[in-house]
């Protein structure tokens, strides 16, 4: 089996996995239908882009459809970016203004109308024979490179903002999901950076390097799609989102003016802090795994804005870490209780408000410098 046939076989696997996962996302029962539809669209576009060797294997000669298929790559990252928005923010909706993301795709096709789409087969062949020197192709490559950089940066900015909003307002397990989406975006960024390098080498004196990178990209794409498929099948409701209308504390501080916060409202914050401490001790609301800052603010009769400033600004601690501190201290009390020595670590983490072992271990190590299991062993050894 020659190299081309091997690549076609790998492409077929990637296309199958992409389409299989897209069907799964479109049919699985979930509250996050928009997110699933957007990612399914991204996977279909990925399958179309990956099928280059398959398309060339089945067709002879250039065609308008073949060029149009190639240029659909301009829709991939905009679709992924919209997917990231839908995952991060619960109130995200597709709006007419989002059609602006198709502008690069339309431009890339428009510049090819005079000398490719609108000419006969012989003219198409002549155009492709000197494709690397054609200004239309050079324009499209520059446009694609700029698009990739802009959307990758924008995706990371959205993830960073949503993570900070989550830490300041929520105390559930979604942070692990946001971290995983960040990892997937990193993997996707690496893929596109290698793809850009491939395109650059394509127009140099070393086109063979471009071909090797192309082969490596197909294999890398198979690994990434398989990774996502594994995650999706095991966690069909992977993400919980945050409210995009929530403001970061640093923005609230800037709005109100830093000089006004400390001296003017110090007494009020002291009163609110005492109320908060008594509330946490009496109500033990931190045992609620899906607790939000709004839940506590409603119970205390304090505006969410003021409570957020108290915890995230005055106390210098994210709400997420603030709540986890109470959870870890409660877990430590259980671990110290000799009558509960038979209670497993898994049972303890659920009892104190966590709903994943990884987030519990991370928070416990951050608070104590050790894992729950090591902490319990240390207590036993000290009693001997």
From TrEMBL:
InterPro entries assigned: Homeodomain-like_sf, HTH_AraC, HTH_AraC-typ_CS, Tscrpt_reg_AraC-type_HTH
PANTHER family: ARAC-FAMILY TRANSCRIPTIONAL REGULATOR
Mitochondrion found in the keyword field: no
Gene3D superfamilies in alphabetical order: Homeodomain-like
Residues that span the membrane, as ranges: 6-26, 38-55, 67-87, 99-117, 137-159, 180-200, 212-230
Name of the protein: AraC family transcriptional regulator
UniProt keyword list: DNA-binding, Membrane, Transcription, Transcription regulation, Transmembrane, Transmembrane helix
Domain HTH araC/xylS-type span(s) in chain numbering: 274-378
Organism of derivation: Chitinophaga caseinilytica
Pfam family, one: HTH_18
